[in-house]
Design a protein that fits this description.
The chain has 411 residues and is an all-alpha fold. The chain is 78% helix and 0% strand. It is globular.
Length: 411
């Protein structure tokens, strides 16, 4: 009876290509926007703090959309959610050069582009991948999908820099908008909701649990709350670096091309980090891996702060940060799936991503405020170090073993 459903499941390679490709295109467009911070400031005259507010709101909105996008995807399927998300990313990115006020930038960057990227973001993509792939392959699969986002960042940053040099920053942004539309065919591959996907791969029927009950159970669990706290710190780091690293490069008196290449190097080395983490989550405790990643970030930032700011140092720092940049995603998603199963994966991982983006809002916004107040980014680096140490410690009390059956919405 399940044979037709089994035949309807896309091959694993196609699922991974669709999910990783979508993440590459949406993340590549979003993570490259920090390259245009100076251009937007020059063109609009709004000031770094005002423009940083638009980027910060984008970080927050990207997180806020993910739990709701996850709920919709769990009910009606990921395909429709992804189509709307990709179209919004393209529209928002295309409109950015036309915006001359803070409100306009908030709408284009913060509402349209970031909201669309949230709908076509990790919560929906990771959940779709988890549902369509057997459990024994999920660790590496999430690493591959995560590496897709890194590859997009590595690819888009130099492309954006080259187009900006040749045709102007506005043409570069609009070119990125058109490129994101290449993700639309992936929606067909990843279509289907949690129940359909579970049946298609032959999983045992899950006990029907409502979304509200699943969310309540997750929020009541201490390990889930600690996981959210750690991911908050990850969001702070990622958003600050993605938004302000080009500004750090400029403040150090280095050429603007170093900023573009630094963003690209982060993406390149994050591919390595994501693959390595995808391999590691099947062999070591995921909470221990997360603690190790955050501790490595603290050491990397401390060494960077104490080092002379040369081009070589900047690129080496980008490479080290890249290894840890988004390698937190596979073990974090893996812990959510391990605790609660795939039935409400998009919703629950969306909540974790919301915590990530609350940190992202502060990282992007406070980066601009700190520079306006002090004329440097030093205090942000100090905050990065302290938060990374705190995140390394907060993961240690997490209980990684599976929860009792009464507390699990298992599939």
């Amino acid at each position: 009876m399940n044979d037709p459903l089994r035949r309807a499941v896309p091959p694993v390679a196609l699922v991974l290509l669709a999910a990783a490709g979508t993440f590459a295109l949406t993340m590549g467009a979003r993570q490259s926007m920090g390259l245009f911070l100076g251009n937007l400031n020059t063109a609009t005259g709004l000031g770094l703090a005002s423009i940083s507010l638009a980027f910060a709101f984008g970080q927050l909105w990207w997180g806020l959309t993910q739990p709701f996008a996850g709920m919709v995807a769990d009910r009606i399927g990921a395909g429709r959610v992804l189509v709307v998300g990709v179209l919004l990313v393209a529209l928002g990115t295309f409109l950015i050069p036309f915006m001359t006020t803070t409100l306009g930038l908030v709408i284009a960057i913060g509402v349209l582009a970031a909201g669309g990227a949230g709908m076509a973001g990790p919560s929906v993509l990771m959940a779709a991948t988890t549902r369509l792939i057997p459990a024994e392959k999920r660790g590496m699969a999430t690493g591959i999908v995560n590496a897709g986002g890194s590859f997009g960042q590595f690819l888009f940053a130099p492309i954006a820099g080259a187009i900006s040099t040749a045709a102007g920053w506005a043409a570069a942004l609009q070119s990125l908008a058109v490129l994101t539309l290449l993700a639309l065919p992936a929606a067909w591959v990843l279509r289907g909701n949690s129940m359909q996907a579970a049946a298609a791969i032959g999983a045992a029927p899950a006990k029907k649990v409502g979304t509200r009950e699943a969310v309540s159970r997750a929020l009541a669990d201490r390990s889930f709350r600690l996981l959210c706290a750690g991911f908050f710190v990850c969001g702070f780091h990622v958003a600050f670096i993605a938004t302000h690293l080009p500004g750090v490069v400029a403040a150090c008196g280095l050429p603007a091309t170093v900023g573009a290449w630094s963003i690209g190097v982060i993406g390149l080395f994050n591919i390595i980090g994501s693959f390595a983490m995808g391999w590691a989550v099947g062999r070591w405790r995921m909470k221990s891996l997360l603690s190790l990643v955050y501790a490595a970030r603290a050491v990397a930032v401390l060494v960077f702060v104490l080092s002379p700011k040369t081009e070589a140092v900047m690129l080496m720092f980008a490479a080290v940060i890249g290894l840890t940049y988004l390698s937190t995603v596979p073990p974090t998603a893996g812990l959510v799936a391990k605790f609660f199963g795939p039935q409400h994966m998009a919703t629950l991982f969306g909540i974790v991503m919301l915590s990530h983006q609350l940190g992202g809002f502060l990282g992007a916004w406070l980066g601009g405020k700190a520079f306006d107040w002090t004329g440097s980014y030093d205090w942000m680096w100090y905050a990065d170090i302290l938060l990374a140490v705190a995140a390394a410690l907060v993961h240690l009390p997490i209980r990684e073993q599976e929860l009792p059956p009464r507390a699990v919405a298992a599939a």
